[in-house]
Amino acid sequence: MNSTATQHPGSVTVIGLGPMGRAMAGALLDRGYGVTVWNRTASRADDLVARGAVLAPSPADAIAANEVAILSLTDYVAVRAVLEPAAQALRDKVLLNLTSATPEEARAGARWAAGYGAVQLTGGVNSSPSGIGQPDSATLYSGPREAFDRHRPVLEALTGRVEHQGEDPGLAALSYQLGMVIFWTSMLSFWQAVALARANGLKAADILPYATETADSLAQFFAFYAERIDAGVHEGDVDRLAMGVASAEHVLHTHTEAGVDSTLPAAVVDLFRRGMEAGHAGDSFSSLVELLAKPADPTDPGTDGRVREDGLSLR
Ligand SMILES: NC(=O)c1ccc[n+]([C@@H]2O[C@H](COP(=O)([O-])OP(=O)(O)OC[C@H]3O[C@@H](n4cnc5c(N)ncnc54)[C@H](OP(=O)(O)O)[C@@H]3O)[C@@H](O)[C@H]2O)c1
């Protein structure tokens, strides 16, 4: 820690001042931390500097300033672009990497940092910028437990709830992506419903109560099907895929009737039909899990899970 540690609860570096990084630096300043910041576009630091943050002239200076550096960047391509020229400043530092990544990218990033004597704690923040600094917001971490325990007050300044999932730096990235697959597809389903409603003269606000009721009901569906899926049960006793495909087609045709983009409902129908072709017509639509657990086209190696030598995912 630097010499300001006696006056502040501590001092922390924040690299990356997008909406998340700015909220994090702000939350730390609110709690009396000394904050050093660096951002590619320096002007994004103006408000924070006005509140007492120190703008470092380079990533290396920012990292050298404090033991802990929060990384809040768009992706690991950005992380590498920022850290590589600063590699010599990394010895004995703790990188709190809150940048979205695949599990393999997070593991490779941790290995790369370890090569320069730094420790990476990977974090998946389950909050929007407005939740940063709030007691109910949560972040899942993985990586060295010792670093998590030692810097817990900093972590709790960012989100009130924190959990250490294990030593594997990829675990928190995996948990984050598991949340995001649900978040992105669910939000997209809402945009889709709004587009369909709009084509029928309705506003988002008009459908909000019904959309909310549907969204709220999902938790009980998750719980019901999770138990059966884990037990390998896809019995068609409460729903059948044959019913599901007919329903999904009604959704698709309502879109084509309204003249709106039907990419998403068509993809749903495609999955349901593939389930039928795989012989699951009489099973529950949960049987689609078995389909989704394999690549759509087994002859296409794709790029899933493959990582370049420098640890970045092939896209
Ligand atoms: N926003 C959310 O609601 C949310 C919620 C949970 C998690 N996250 C995750 O948190 C991370 C940060 O989120 P955000 O919304 O603040 O992201 P963002 O808007 O993408 O901004 C992140 C920062 O990355 C910097 N950056 C991007 N490419 C760079 C490069 N090649 N070299 C140097 N800097 C580069 C940007 O610098 P410039 O200012 O110069 O462009 C910016 O400061 C992301 O990984 C995101 O997935 C976001």
From TrEMBL:
The keyword Glycoprotein does not apply. Its EC number is 1.1.-.-. It comes from the Bacteria. Residues 303-315 have a biased composition (Basic and acidic residues). Pfam families: NAD_binding_2 (PF03446), RedAm-like_C (PF21761). Keywords: Oxidoreductase. Residues 294-315 are annotated as: Disordered. Residues 168-293 form the NADPH-dependent reductive aminase-like C-terminal domain. It is an enzyme of class 1 (oxidoreductase). GO terms for molecular function: oxidoreductase activity. Residues 12-163 form the 6-phosphogluconate dehydrogenase NADP-binding domain. Belongs to the HIBADH-related family. PANTHER family: CYTOKINE-LIKE NUCLEAR FACTOR N-PAC, OXIDOREDUCTASE GLYR1-RELATED. This is NAD(P)-dependent oxidoreductase.
